[in-house]
Amino acid sequence: MRGLWVDAFGPGLKTPAQVAQMVSDAASLGVNTLFVQTIRRADCFCNRASVPRATDSDLAPDFDPLADVLKLAHAQGMRVFAWASVTGAGNAAAPNTSPQHVLKTHGPAAGTESWVNRRPDGSYLQGSDIWLDAGIPQAAEYMVQSLLSVVRNYDVDGIQLDRIRYPDGGDWGYSPQALARYRSETGAKGTPLATDPAWIDWKREQITALVRRVVLETRRLKPQVWISAATITYGAPPADLKGFQKSRTYSDVLQNWPAWTQEGLIDLNVLMNYKQDLVPNHIQWFDDWNKFALSVRGKAEVAAGTALYLNSPEISRRQMQRALGAGLGWVGYAYRTPGVDVYKHGQSQPKGFEVLRRSLTQNGGPLTSTTWDVTPPTRYALLGRVVGSAPLGGREVEARSANGLLLASTTTDGNGYYGFVDLPMGQIEVRVAGQRWQQQLSQPGVARAPDLLVKDIGVAPALKQGKGK
Prior knowledge:
The chain has 469 residues and is an alpha/beta fold. It is built from 13 helices and 19 strands. The strands form 4 sheets. The protein has an 8-stranded parallel β-barrel, surrounded by 5 helices. It starts with a strand and ends in a 15-residue tail after the last strand. Keywords: Signal.
């Protein structure tokens, strides 16, 4: 896998001429996959999605960038992934002007209808960015449907989940709705401290549950679509899973991506392994994060995402060589900023891209024209939902074989959904809240179990026995 990220913060996607030039440049570089920014801040660089079009004065009126990229890239034999900032809601310095935008209907001023992620003091800006809270069931449903609308309406080869996490800092998730739900599901009292382990674990599970729902719904619609995530590699790399659980990725932004690969949630893990070889320790950090990702890959493909914008083309060449030599694919960030001289020193994008192309492809460079034609792993999966008495979230669900062997367990999300993504073929028994349901998995794909009605019945206290009785 040889890929290139194409972001929407500069030239590349705004007009038909830009898209044609970008696809031509990518073909000359020899990449076989484009990760095209589609959902940026709860808005779309496309016309047929449930979220409004992006507000951008450089975006040609009525132009559909995603549709154009698909047409031109597919003609060149390249795959196209719709890259989505899942929890991104907006930027206060550059707001979307559509009255249908989520910040107009469920923004910071919407009171109990706000879906915005907050700190304990109620603040919600990270710099100028505003995030959605995955712990709010309605917000999670909105994010799921946004992605599905793209999958449903465009012939994408894959989707990539970006910003599928909490913001940096650890003290997020304090929207009133998320707190109320946490108390309801766990019995906790008061407001948890940001360092409370149970609270941290609960929030981390909200992100994984959101990934699980997106994955299962996408595979129901189009089983051939790849599911990818752009994953965090903060700080020194871990040697094993125990070490990963001490990392900022796991404990701060609450992104448990090794669990996603091992459970079978994602088919392609693209590390945002943005290291600079000239910074002390970064060469080793880059190599060891790649090594760790391979060790927990499950059935997933793994690619090293490198920061073209932070490095010279020669360093990008060396990083790519090391990644490919270790057995990973490669993705460069980004088309708009193909080298540090473009990003920081005023070099033009066309000039920087040409220097990068020569470095990666000529004189024994590592980027040769390669076909990436593998398909996602074949899986037997099950999606279901509990309905009825609150709370719907946090309920334990088991999948067992016909003879009662426990195959997998999970918990329901805030909307009552549960799912198992990699089960054996045959009869599966689902157990949840005292109910059982049997489902036959006879063909690859996602089977939809019927909704299960849950009625919580309180247990009457035992009568006290009188004397002599």
